[in-house]
Amino acid sequence: MTGEEFTSAQVKMKVTLRRKVSLSREKRYYEVVLVVFLAAVVVVVIIDIVINVRVVIVVRKFLLSANVRSVVASDNLTTTLRLFRAIAFTNIFLNIYQR
Is the pTM of this model over 0.85? Predict the structure, then answer.
């Protein structure tokens, strides 16, 4: 025996160990991708909330200073902001998906 010969149990154990290492690397990769994606979503949501609040405050001040107190104008503003938010989210997710 040269010392290089292995029993079938040893070979199976080495193959199993290699598979486990390979799977753990893949698992770590997917976990990192998931964490980065969730962090990006949280950042986008926070930025969206901050921008949305600022825009609403500025536009409402403008509407109040112009003596426009219409419920319809407020509803249209909210709908427009929701549309812009949906477009922004779609754009961000498409950019992430394309990479």
Answer: no
